[in-house]
Amino acid sequence: MSINSESDNHKGPFSWRPSYHIAPPYGLMNDPNGFSYFNHQYWLFFQWNPSGCEHVNKHWGLMTSTDLVHWQQQPFKMAPTHWFDKDGCYSGSGLVEKGGLSLFYTGNVRHGELRESYQCLVTTEDGQQYLNQGPLWTKQLEDFTGHVRDPKVFYVNQQRRMWLAAQNRDLKGGVAVLDETAEGTWQLRGHYFNPIGWANDQLGYMWECPDRLQFGDQVVLVCCVQGINCSDPYSSNENLSGFFQIEEDADGEIRFTSDYLLLDHGFEFYAPQSIVDPQGQTILIGWMGLPDDPEQPSVANEQWCGQLTMPRVCQWENGALRQRPLAELFAAFSEPNTVLPITFKMASFECTNTCYIELDNLKGAGQLTVDNPKESLVITWDENGEATVDRTEFCTVGMDLIRQYKSRDGCIKQLQLFIDNSSFELFINDGEAVMTGRIFPNTSVTHATVLGVAGELKVRFLDTSCINTLMKEQFSDEYASLVSR
User: Rounded to an integer, what is the distance from CA 234 to the centroid of its chain?
Assistant: First the structure.
């Protein structure tokens, strides 16, 4: 569909546009790209079709922030205007180097049913002027199909190394490892893949969006495995986002030391990117979407679709990854409006579309319901530590309805639920797991109920006066020219 930048077609009193998550002003947003800390700011690029809500015409949009909470839309920095990216500027990474910021991305070129991919470099010294240096090499990699993309570039012993999502001629997904030579060329070191585990020997036909996390000696390979036939309630889509624990040698060889572990146990989460911030924290942001999402109601009503997760702080504790909400985000919420010990069978309280609900020191089974007069989001947990999210009444046609997570501790002790108009993020047991999803209620959320638990309840509401997330306001002539095409 075409996008009209002058008006918003939403007819009802309730908007699905988020208040504290990043979303596009119009058009389609998907993968975060080039996430970096540069010139005392966070730079978060993203896949963006500014002229429609289809997965075509991919640009790189840009948001900047000084605190990961208040974000400023910037003019777009990459458009598919060259021979080597004419069918899309696909995903990639950022690398802060002496003298500026280097952005690596995949240029997509189609020839009918065939495709070519080019790994390209854009550089900037000041974040204002950008130089597209074109492909790092022009010959297509041997022994691979045209599905080679999403460069993740990092340094090893003062040498650039690249991880690439790559499909071999046997149609197996994996990660290709390349090293830059002293002469500035790139040498293929190998192609590495592994069954996902879980008593499952499937490999997937593509491992998209590789990322690399490191916690001391523990290295984590993040990737999005496509093509897994998985029908259980814990992970019932074919586009997974997770990680392997790995070991590496000096030549880049990867040895897998764990099964594939999910980063998010909810509905829509994909293509995460991470940085290490100035305080040494690993910060991760993902796309609240999937490659084969059904059309979202915001497309027809408000001419946009897609949004990103809140920043998560990742830590490696006792041999496991924990993801917690960014502490600075809580400053955008009020002090707890409700603090109640839950020692009775039911607690009922007012709620809004932009709120935070925390249940702590839980004992036994229980249920949290967030609703309006006609619809509800239902979260239940049992005495064996299994949590279930049922969004049946908040869904649109084609969306999965139920997800479950079984705690490795055998009990549910804490739940932290963030709701933001058309999305939720549920953190379980102090970051042991996260369940993320989109929701599309027809009217505003007004009420919540907690049933049958012992514990403590806290409720906070968003203070909209102190947060400046992306809204559809004033945009430059550069954007106006895009949407008028």
Answer: 19
C-alpha span between 174 and 193 (Å, rounded): 5
Tokens read off for 341: 């010990």
**Spatial distance between the Cα atoms of 70 and 52, rounded to a whole number of angstroms:** 26
Buried b (16+ CB within 10 A) or exposed e, 442-467: eeebeebbbbebebbbbbbbbeeeeb
Say what the pLDDT of residue 376 is. Answer: 95
Question: Is pLDDT of 301 > 70?
Answer: yes
Residue whose structure tokens are 């880049």:
252
Predicted confidence (pLDDT) per residue in 454-482, tens digit: 888 889 988 766 554 433 333 444 444 44
pLDDT of res. 210:
99
Edge-to-edge order in the sheet of strand 366-371: 346-350, 447-451, 366-371, 376-381, 386-390, 402-406
Average pLDDT over residues 58-70: 95
Write down the CATH number for the domain with range 334-466. Answer: 2.60.120.560
Give the separation between CA 200 and CA 229, rounded to whole angstroms.
10
Q: What is the CA radius of gyration of the chain?
A: 22
pLDDT digits (tens, 9 = 90+) for 325-344: 999 998 888 887 777 777 65
Which pLDDT belongs to residue 398? 79
409 belongs to the catalytic site: no
Cβ-proximal residues to 80 (8 Å cutoff; 6+ apart), any chain:
57, 58, 59, 86, 87, 88, 89, 107, 108
Please tell me the predicted confidence (pLDDT) of residue 332: 84
The CA-to-CA distance between both ends of the chain, in Å, stands at 12
Domain locations in the chain?
Answer: 334-466
Q: Which two tokens stand for residue 81?
A: 């205007």
Distance CA 361, CA 370 (A): 20
Q: 119, exposed or middle or buried, with CB in 10 Å at 0-12, 13-18, 19+?
A: buried
Angle at 161 between CA 158 and CA 166, to 5 degrees: 175
Q: What is the reported pTM?
A: 0.93
Q: How confident is the model at residue 177 (pLDDT cuts 50, 70, 90)?
A: very high
Distance CA 45, CA 22 (A): 11
Residue 433 pLDDT exceeds 80: yes
Starting at the edge strand that comes first in sequence, how are the strands of the sheet with 433-438 ordered?
A: 338-342, 454-461, 354-363, 415-420, 423-428, 433-438
What pLDDT is stored for residue 234 in this prediction? 58
Beta-strand runs (E) in 382-477: 386-390, 402-406, 415-420, 423-428, 433-438, 447-451, 454-461
Q: Position 283: which residue type? A: I
Report how far residue 122's alpha carbon sits from residue 143's, in angstroms, rounded to the nearest whole number.
27
